[in-house]
Design a protein that fits this description.
Layout (H helix, E strand, L loop, with lengths): L2 H5 L3 E4 L7 E4 L1 H4 L2 H15 L6 E5 L2 H13 L3 E4 L10 E7 L2 E7 L9 E9 L3 H12 L3 E10 L5 H7 L3 E7 L4
Parallel strand pairs: 3-4, 3-7, 7-8, 8-9
Antiparallel strand pairs: 1-2, 5-6
Length: about 180
Amino acid sequence: MSPEELKSLVRTIPDFPKSGIQFRDITTLIGHGEGFRASVEWLSAQVSKGPVDAIAGMEARGFIFGAAVAAALGKPFIPIRKPGKLPIATIGVDYALEYGSDRLEMDPEAIGEGARVAIVDDLLATGGTACAATDLLRKAGAQVSAASFIIDLPDLGGAEKLRDCKVEVSSLMQFDGD
């Protein structure tokens, strides 16, 4: 499937979660078998452009695409979790959101020192979560130099912010606006 055909599978829900926001819903993309497969193949090809030892994805939708890419490439998957989800000692990073703050955590033993990790997620908006995941993985000893997304919202500046973190960014499709 072409990128334009895949883009047509993404449902837009206006005014969610608040007025003026155009929510890009990937439920319709992952619910289309051929579209989901083509998206995972595209992400796998992007990740394979450089050396990679493992794939990381952020909870929750990053688990869908990241785990699928890891399985397709025969690589380990590293889940980046919301706080309090693991019954073990974790490492974490706090980061700023547009209105407030959040935290990401992971098992510090999930990766080895110097492991080359690529981040895979569904959507890149402001880049806050992706940069926090990059910081967390680096705190755990990983080398993070690439991140691939299904959707980029370039007007929100996330790709530029992630590039400032020394991460190469690729996206299957872009949508203007929020």
